[in-house]
Amino acid sequence: MPELTFFLAAGTAVLLGATVQSSVGLGLGLVAAPVVALLDPSLMPGTMLIATAALPVFVLAVEWRNVDWRGLAWALSGRLPGSVAAVWIVATVDPEVLAGGVGAMVLVAVALTVRAVRVRINRGSLLTAGLLSGFTGTATSIGGPPIALLYQHEEAARIRGTLAAYFLVGVVMSLGLLAAGGELQSTEIVHGLWLLPFVAAGFLAGRPLCRLVDAGRIRVVLLAVVTVSGIVLLVQSALG
């Protein structure tokens, strides 16, 4: 069983992150990954990937009709090579350097979006977003920004459903590749499983908020969440 300090601190972060993600589509990794990394860096990214694998199951139970299945297929096609590359990077590159690079990339993408650069959802953009998301998600457990930026102009329910389906398959893919590469330890799995009750509680807390999130609001919230994720990664890199 994890230490009480870890259980309470990480559990609270997971609860808050799951609440945000169940209402707007992403946020669990953003809120909880830095906390877990600060408490015990050796538990990353496996522990957070285990925790984030459960939430999409809950979301899909109510949002599966809104999934963009065609777009999902193309995005997942890009996720695989991105995840494979990340497994090699995790084993060879300093985690702080990696976090800083990913954070900078996320902030550049947000800056372009704010300047009204709207990327069309097509095969090329989906493959690219999936590739980037696979890389960042497997390496840092924060893989939502590329896909979220691509779908930010869609309806709120479509965003939540599509991101949930993407996260579920993508996280399972990342965990499998990390395990095959010898980068997933039993302690990461155990700690991740202990955090699952907090994930379930966050989902239940976030569902009532869905009624308050329309197409306009969800874009603002998504941009804010993605921006903070980039800043968090940069700060994590600097502190490391």
TrEMBL record:
A single Gene Ontology CC term: plasma membrane
Pfam families: TauE
Membrane topology: Multi-pass membrane protein
Bilayer-spanning residue ranges: 46-64, 71-91, 97-117, 163-182, 188-206, 218-239
InterPro entries cross-referenced by the UniProt entry: TM_pro_TauE-like, TSUP
Domain of life assignment: Bacteria
Subcellular location: Cell membrane
Keywords: Cell membrane, Membrane, Transmembrane, Transmembrane helix, Transport
Family per record: Belongs to the 4-toluene sulfonate uptake permease (TSUP) (TC 2.A.102) family.
Official protein name in the record: Probable membrane transporter protein
